[in-house]
Every structure is written in structure tokens, then in C-alpha cells.
């Protein structure tokens, strides 16, 4: 049986190598692998092989079948290549070429890359936290009491009825602020680990105590998809936010304003300025809304912006309760945070006029190719 298989294989391969067109190859395929092909019929005889050798012969048979199939494919490719070559020779190489269509990154991806590189220059590192998140990180740890009406402002998607006793329900993250406490937990765990390795005294390794040891310094940039139950010309159910978090010793509003101005000038241009307006968020105290001067009238007031300013998003000093949830001692450390929409800042950029945000995700090339 083995000999028969090997000789079949040799026959097939030498015929395949001689084949000079696809039709002959198809005939050879039929001759060996067709329903009553030589190899097919031989394979059927395997039942006659004694049981103890059947597995071995069976696997050889499969190998043979596979190599015949592969040889046919290989020869097909070779033949195809040859035809291309022949065709190429008939081309007039002095004719101008055909420009292949060149794509580019999606507008939002471009914006995210630009934002990342602006913050990278001042030491903010991009991180990624889950899009499918626990209620705990999106709300509870951000100082939202259970059943607090402020939760409704986020129009959350709940995935299941399932509830964890500590972390609550599983949701689609409605904002990138959910990365704040995750980042704090990660930084504290790292510092405790380091202290343990160096067997430092004075730093309490236990998780129950708030971290008040040295060297805590967070500069996070969390850019991610967010989800809310909303859809109109200026909202989509899926959108992107970028969240900054800076925690350290003696961090104050001055730092927040400095970072804000730096971003506005780098992203929108030297001629734009920002202002902060008092507002309320559960997780920051004090909290602000950030406005940027309109790119068309530069703050004078026009049809587009009405009063000269466009709203960019929220910011504030991290609430002591949030630091506590993150395991950080608010008596020693303070911080600021901000969360702005990628789509929103993009639309506020000069020269980008998008009157319906949903167009960004419509996959219409006529739209995307304009940028
Ligand atoms: N997460 C808020 C939202 O989605 C925005 C925000 C406000 C983020 C204040 C912050 C902040 O970090 O400090 O509307």
C-alpha cells in the first residue's frame, strides 16, 4: 500500500510539473483526486489494511493527497506568473502609469495621534482602560452615591442584569473618567511593590491604608471610546474622549490652567485662548467647564459661536473622596483632571466644518476624502 501511494505521488507530481496550462492541471486533478480518481480509489482501500497499521498508512495517504494538492496550486501560481510576465512585455513602458488610490488614517485617528503627541511632550503617557467597565469605576469610585440622579446625565448602556456585590453592574463606559481610579490603583500598587522590594521602612505595604509615601506622580492620558444613549447632529452613541489626570504633591489649579493653555495653543493655534467657568461634577472640587475662543471670530462673537466662545468640556481638581477611592492620601497628594471629546475638539478646529457628527462614522469616502 505504501509503495502504491508513493508511486502515485511520483506520477502525479511529474505530470503536474510538465503541465503548461491551467486546463491540463484541472485534468490531472480529476485524474488523481476526482471522485473516481486514482488516488481517491486507493484511499478507499485503506479499510483493507490491518487495523494496527491503518493509522500509519492513513496519515501517509493524507500527506500524499496534500502534496499533490499543493503541487497543483504551486504550478498554478507559476503559470499565472508567467502569463503576467508575457503580458508585461507587451506594455508600452513609456505610457504614464496609473496612480494607485492612496488612503489615509481616519480623521478621528489623526486627531487622537495629534493629541497624544501634544501631551507626550509634557510627560503625559497614553494608557488604555476597558470600554466594558464596572459601574464602580465609572460612577461609585468617582464619588457618585448609589441612585444619585447625576448618574442619569451619563445616559449609560447597561449590558446585563448581573451585579457584582462590590463593583456593581457591567456597563459600556460612558466617559474616560473611569480610568482615573484604575490609574491611581495601578500607581499605588507599583510604589508599594517597589518599597517592598527595597524593604523600605516607613511605607506601609498594606492595601487598607491610604498611600502617603514618597514619589507618587501620575500623568495619565486615557483616550478611549465611550458610549451613551444619544444620537443627533452633535452626538453619536459611540464617541471618543481624552482624559488627563495629574496627581502629585502640591498640584494646584495653576497647573491645570497651564496645561489647558498649552493644549489650546498647540492644538488650535497661537491665536486661540481658553477660559474656565465654575461648574459642577461629582468627582472634582472645584469643577469647571472649559471654553475656547471661536476659531472664526476669535472671541468677538459671530453667527457660529454667538458669544465668542465654544465649549470644550469639563475639568477640575480631583475630589478628595476620589483620591481616597484610588488608595491615595488626600492630605499629602492633590491633582487635577480633565475630560474632553475628541470629536468635539476636532470640530472646533479651524477649517474643519462638519455639520453632522454622524457623518464621521458613515463610512462615506466622499466625506472622508475631503480631509
Ligand atoms: N467625564 C466628564 C464627562 O464625560 C468630563 C469631565 C469633567 C472629566 C470633569 C474630568 C473632569 O476629568 O475633571 O462629561
Distance between the termini: 67 Å
List the uncertain runs: none
**SS element count, helices:** 11
What's the rounded overall pLDDT mean? 90
Number of extended strands? 10
CATH superfamily of the largest domain: Bira Bifunctional Protein, Domain 2
Radius of gyration, in Å, reads: 33 Å
How much of the sequence is in beta strands?
A: 15-25%
CATH architecture of the largest domain: 2-Layer Sandwich
Shape: elongated
Stated plainly, the CATH topology of the largest domain is called BirA Bifunctional Protein, domain 2
Helices and strands, in order, run as HHHHHEEHEEHEEHEEEHEHH
Structural class: alpha+beta
CATH top level of the largest domain is Alpha Beta
Largest sheet: 7 strands, mixed
Bound molecules: 3,4-dihydroxyphenylalanine
Please summarize what this structure is:
The chain has 371 residues and is of the alpha+beta class. Helix content is 39%, strand content 20%. The site of 3,4-dihydroxyphenylalanine (DAH) has 13 residues, from strand 8, strand 9 and strand 10.
